[in-house]
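We modelled the chain as a single entity of 71 amino acids. Its sequence is:
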Amino acid sequence: TDKLYKITIPVLLARGRYDFTVPQQVYEEVFEKINSEVKYNVTFNKSEHAVSHGETDLFVDMIKDFITENK
């Protein structure tokens, strides 16, 4: 995590509310250390660690929107 400040491209962090693999504090710490002007930290309310499996349609739509907005 000591090099996260070097990240300046758009970033999308996604986590599941019921993710017990990576604590929320870790996501927040990573998010704060990233230097990008465009960064999103999204929590999926019905998912565990693998948000792409828990809320697939919502996840795919969010990824498409993120890519479209940050071309």
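As a brief sanity check on the tokenised model: The beta strands are 11-16, 39-44. The CA atoms of residues 47 and 53 lie 8 Å apart.
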